[in-house]
Design brief:
The structure is a single chain. By secondary structure, the chain is α/β, with parallel strands linked by helices. The protein has a single domain, classed as P-loop containing nucleotide triphosphate hydrolases (Rossmann fold, 3-Layer(aba) Sandwich). The protein is 58% helix and 13% strand. A five-stranded parallel sheet has the order 2-3-1-4-5, with helices on both faces. Helix 2 packs across helix 4 and helix 4 runs parallel beside helix 5. The radius of gyration is 16 Å and the shape is globular.
Protein backbone atom coordinates (compact mmCIF):
# COMPACT_ATOMS: atom_id res chain seq x y z
CA UNK A 1 0.00 0.00 0.00
CA UNK A 2 2.89 2.40 0.76
CA UNK A 3 0.85 4.68 3.02
CA UNK A 4 0.93 4.30 6.79
CA UNK A 5 -2.51 3.37 8.09
CA UNK A 6 -3.43 3.47 11.77
CA UNK A 7 -6.60 1.97 13.23
CA UNK A 8 -7.84 3.42 16.49
CA UNK A 9 -9.72 0.76 18.45
CA UNK A 10 -11.23 0.40 21.89
CA UNK A 11 -14.53 0.53 23.73
CA UNK A 12 -17.36 2.92 23.04
CA UNK A 13 -16.60 6.45 24.30
CA UNK A 14 -12.88 5.87 24.89
CA UNK A 15 -11.87 8.83 22.68
CA UNK A 16 -10.74 6.96 19.58
CA UNK A 17 -12.82 8.89 17.04
CA UNK A 18 -11.75 12.33 18.25
CA UNK A 19 -8.14 11.14 18.53
CA UNK A 20 -8.14 9.74 14.98
CA UNK A 21 -9.72 12.88 13.60
CA UNK A 22 -7.19 15.08 15.43
CA UNK A 23 -4.24 12.95 14.29
CA UNK A 24 -5.41 13.23 10.69
CA UNK A 25 -5.78 17.01 10.98
CA UNK A 26 -2.38 17.40 12.66
CA UNK A 27 -0.61 15.34 9.99
CA UNK A 28 -2.55 16.40 6.91
CA UNK A 29 -3.75 12.82 6.70
CA UNK A 30 -7.04 11.15 5.88
CA UNK A 31 -9.62 10.44 8.61
CA UNK A 32 -12.01 7.52 8.12
CA UNK A 33 -14.84 6.78 10.55
CA UNK A 34 -16.08 3.21 10.08
CA UNK A 35 -19.46 4.16 11.60
CA UNK A 36 -19.90 6.74 8.84
CA UNK A 37 -19.00 4.15 6.20
CA UNK A 38 -21.53 1.76 7.79
CA UNK A 39 -24.20 4.43 7.41
CA UNK A 40 -23.21 5.16 3.81
CA UNK A 41 -23.32 1.47 2.90
CA UNK A 42 -26.57 0.64 4.68
CA UNK A 43 -28.54 3.87 4.86
CA UNK A 44 -28.95 3.23 8.60
CA UNK A 45 -27.19 4.48 11.71
CA UNK A 46 -24.90 1.96 13.37
CA UNK A 47 -27.48 1.58 16.16
CA UNK A 48 -30.36 0.92 13.76
CA UNK A 49 -28.24 -1.43 11.67
CA UNK A 50 -27.35 -3.47 14.78
CA UNK A 51 -31.04 -3.62 15.70
CA UNK A 52 -31.65 -5.12 12.23
CA UNK A 53 -29.56 -8.10 13.33
CA UNK A 54 -26.00 -8.68 14.41
CA UNK A 55 -25.16 -10.73 11.29
CA UNK A 56 -26.37 -7.92 9.02
CA UNK A 57 -24.37 -5.45 11.11
CA UNK A 58 -21.16 -7.54 11.02
CA UNK A 59 -21.46 -8.17 7.26
CA UNK A 60 -21.84 -4.43 6.66
CA UNK A 61 -18.96 -3.72 9.04
CA UNK A 62 -16.77 -6.02 6.95
CA UNK A 63 -17.80 -4.15 3.81
CA UNK A 64 -16.96 -0.87 5.58
CA UNK A 65 -13.44 -2.14 6.36
CA UNK A 66 -13.06 -3.17 2.70
CA UNK A 67 -14.09 0.37 1.67
CA UNK A 68 -11.65 1.85 4.19
CA UNK A 69 -8.87 -0.29 2.69
CA UNK A 70 -9.75 1.01 -0.79
CA UNK A 71 -9.73 4.63 0.43
CA UNK A 72 -6.42 4.10 2.26
CA UNK A 73 -4.81 2.57 -0.84
CA UNK A 74 -5.68 5.74 -2.78
CA UNK A 75 -4.30 8.12 -0.16
CA UNK A 76 -0.81 9.53 -0.44
CA UNK A 77 -0.96 10.71 3.17
CA UNK A 78 -1.19 8.85 6.48
CA UNK A 79 -4.62 7.36 7.19
CA UNK A 80 -6.34 7.29 10.58
CA UNK A 81 -9.32 4.97 10.98
CA UNK A 82 -11.76 5.12 13.91
CA UNK A 83 -13.24 1.64 14.36
CA UNK A 84 -16.40 0.69 16.18
CA UNK A 85 -15.95 -0.58 19.72
CA UNK A 86 -17.06 -4.11 18.92
CA UNK A 87 -15.02 -4.69 15.77
CA UNK A 88 -12.86 -7.15 17.69
CA UNK A 89 -15.91 -9.47 17.71
CA UNK A 90 -15.94 -9.51 13.90
CA UNK A 91 -13.03 -11.80 13.04
CA UNK A 92 -13.23 -11.17 9.31
CA UNK A 93 -13.36 -7.37 9.58
CA UNK A 94 -10.76 -7.15 12.35
CA UNK A 95 -8.42 -9.54 10.57
CA UNK A 96 -8.64 -7.42 7.44
CA UNK A 97 -8.04 -4.24 9.47
CA UNK A 98 -4.92 -5.79 11.02
CA UNK A 99 -3.67 -6.82 7.58
CA UNK A 100 -3.52 -3.28 6.23
CA UNK A 101 -3.15 -1.08 9.32
CA UNK A 102 -1.29 -0.67 12.58
CA UNK A 103 -3.76 -1.22 15.41
CA UNK A 104 -3.75 1.14 18.37
CA UNK A 105 -5.91 0.25 21.37
CA UNK A 106 -7.39 3.00 23.55
CA UNK A 107 -7.78 1.47 26.98
CA UNK A 108 -10.18 2.69 29.65
CA UNK A 109 -11.61 0.81 32.61
CA UNK A 110 -15.03 -0.82 32.41
CA UNK A 111 -16.26 1.65 35.04
CA UNK A 112 -15.09 4.67 33.05
CA UNK A 113 -16.57 3.32 29.83
CA UNK A 114 -19.88 2.64 31.63
CA UNK A 115 -20.00 6.17 33.08
CA UNK A 116 -19.43 7.66 29.63
CA UNK A 117 -22.08 5.44 28.03
CA UNK A 118 -24.50 6.29 30.83
CA UNK A 119 -23.83 10.03 30.43
CA UNK A 120 -24.41 9.86 26.66
CA UNK A 121 -27.66 7.94 27.22
CA UNK A 122 -28.84 10.55 29.72
CA UNK A 123 -28.02 13.34 27.28
CA UNK A 124 -30.41 11.84 24.75
CA UNK A 125 -28.13 9.48 22.88
CA UNK A 126 -30.00 6.44 24.14
CA UNK A 127 -28.50 3.14 25.19
CA UNK A 128 -26.30 1.34 22.67
CA UNK A 129 -28.12 -1.42 20.81
CA UNK A 130 -25.61 -4.02 21.99
CA UNK A 131 -26.64 -3.42 25.62
CA UNK A 132 -30.23 -4.55 25.28
CA UNK A 133 -31.19 -7.00 28.01
CA UNK A 134 -32.27 -7.29 31.62
CA UNK A 135 -28.94 -6.13 33.11
CA UNK A 136 -27.12 -3.75 30.71
CA UNK A 137 -24.40 -2.89 33.21
CA UNK A 138 -23.48 -6.54 33.79
CA UNK A 139 -23.56 -7.22 30.04
CA UNK A 140 -21.34 -4.18 29.45
CA UNK A 141 -18.75 -5.31 32.01
CA UNK A 142 -18.61 -8.82 30.51
CA UNK A 143 -18.24 -7.47 26.96
CA UNK A 144 -15.72 -4.85 28.03
CA UNK A 145 -13.47 -7.29 29.87
CA UNK A 146 -13.59 -9.94 27.14
CA UNK A 147 -12.95 -7.42 24.37
CA UNK A 148 -10.19 -5.64 26.31
CA UNK A 149 -8.24 -8.89 26.61
CA UNK A 150 -8.54 -9.46 22.84
CA UNK A 151 -7.58 -5.86 21.98
CA UNK A 152 -4.52 -6.01 24.26
CA UNK A 153 -3.29 -9.11 22.41
CA UNK A 154 -3.94 -7.67 18.95
CA UNK A 155 -2.75 -4.07 19.32
CA UNK A 156 0.61 -2.78 18.19
CA UNK A 157 0.41 -0.13 20.88
CA UNK A 158 -1.84 0.39 23.91
CA UNK A 159 -2.76 3.95 24.79
CA UNK A 160 -4.08 4.44 28.29
CA UNK A 161 -6.97 6.82 27.73
CA UNK A 162 -8.24 6.83 31.31
CA UNK A 163 -8.74 10.40 32.59
CA UNK A 164 -6.87 11.97 29.67
CA UNK A 165 -8.11 15.00 27.80
CA UNK A 166 -8.33 14.97 24.00
CA UNK A 167 -5.28 17.27 23.95
CA UNK A 168 -3.28 14.84 26.09
CA UNK A 169 -4.26 11.90 23.89
CA UNK A 170 -3.37 13.90 20.79
CA UNK A 171 0.06 14.70 22.22
CA UNK A 172 0.70 11.06 23.08
CA UNK A 173 -0.31 9.95 19.59
CA UNK A 174 1.83 12.65 17.97
CA UNK A 175 4.85 11.48 20.04
CA UNK A 176 4.15 7.85 19.16
CA UNK A 177 3.97 8.62 15.43
CA UNK A 178 7.04 10.85 15.53
CA UNK A 179 9.11 8.17 17.24
CA UNK A 180 8.15 5.40 14.78
Amino acid sequence: MGTEVFSFTGPKHCGKTLAAKTAAQDSGGLFIDLDVLLEELSGLTARDLFLSGEKIFRDTETRAVQKARELASQSGAPVFIAAGGGIIDNQEAFGMLKDFSLVLYFEVSADTAWKRIEKAAEQGGGWPAFLKGPDPRKLHRELHERRAALYRKAALHIITAEDKTPAELSGEIRALLTNR
